[in-house]
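Quick one: structure for this chain?
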Amino acid sequence: MVVGPVNQLRSLLLPILFGLVVGGFNPWVLGATGAGIVALLVNGFVTWRTTRYEVGEDRLEIRKGLVRRSRRTIPLERVRGVDVTSTLLHRILGVAVVRIEAAAGSAGATEDGKLDAVDIAEAERLRRVLLHRREVLTGRASADTPDDASAPSGEGGGTDEGIVHFAVPRSWYLYGALSLGYLLTPFAVLATLFGAVQQTAGEWATDAFIDWVRDSDRSGLVMFAVAGVVIIVLLMPVFAVVSYAITHWGFTLRERDGSLVAERGLFTRRSVTLEKRRIRGYELADNPLERLRGAVRLRAIVTGLGDAAGRSVLLPIGPRGEVEAVVDRALGRYTGTLRRHPRAALVRRLLRSVGPPALAVAVAVAFGPAWTVVLTLTLTVAGVPLGVDRYRSLGHGYDGERVSVRSGSISRSQATVERSAVIGWTWSQTLFQRRSGLADLQVTVGAGAGGYTAQDASLGASVAFAADVTPDMVRPFLVDPRP
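Got it. Here's what it folds into:
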């Protein structure tokens, strides 16, 4: 009765305050505001009274609604995951949100069940019983195995925390300053505030800002703008570390009941469960700043995972050595080396990174002022190390159990998948690649992004590589050149 109205009131808070200020707190505005708050409270009470759920032997049923009633039934054998999330308000009230993701039977579709404001102990009980019933129905567990469905908090399986693979040390929070996404946090905050003001005040705020600019001294405005930019730039690392810490506070990765459970968050605590049998590999990602400090982030490559960007995170940004040690313990690490791509791939990367700014230099010399020549020439020179780094990042390999593919520079990623996850290969060539004997080889898998590409690999070597990984799949299509 509290969570629902508060969440709705939070989105209406700025419009209500703006209406009260503009309306001068007259009785009509105050009365309308009071009536709106009462309506929210009544709606919260009705939602609480009419929401029911039941876990049967083979399905979960959720019913809710008074005037417009709904009933959702989710077969338990189709449950893919059960996540438990608690915002700051939920944690104060001792409740949590339980989200059930289930396959809907069609490719890429899901049918989700959501139970908001469930008691924390009940949320953990629901996760245990739903995952256990799913295992029983799919034949991967015995019906005689207890699921602790009736065990209260602190009894039965409630104390089993499983194997803890990782618990974030406080020193890791400093790695937030290396992430481009976290460094841009101040600009995201400013954009959010601007959008909220624009949506609430509309033209009134725009007119007030224009009048302020028109009436202010130009030199003062320039100094104010420069000072603002300098302050924001100086605060970027601070905001990045704070944002990283808030998002990944108390991050833990543990293995329990055949699943990896990642839990994180300061204000909003989120617990994500990933079945190990559905994890087909992992992905290590970094950027130039992170590479300078030897840091990477870790994501799982999982079959049938909704909201993969948020739910596949296995480790936040941290030292590569420690991340790889966790991979080795939890999943199994790729132990092979990566094959270098032909020198023709270096030429293609240099042409892509140096060609456009070099063309811009020619245009600037012919038509532009001197500063454009300097700018475009600087970009051309900077394109050389960028192209070399992009070439050095290329690679693919196979260690007998796993296939690994790496590419990228500004955003570099190395995807490693199990050999059993490979369901196909795709070669593609442009006109220029054909002349250089290169091809893009995509490893097709039924998980994650669906495919991972070894860019500008040697065509002949890539065919031999695929035939070595999956001979039964590739060799029937090879042509014997002998007469």
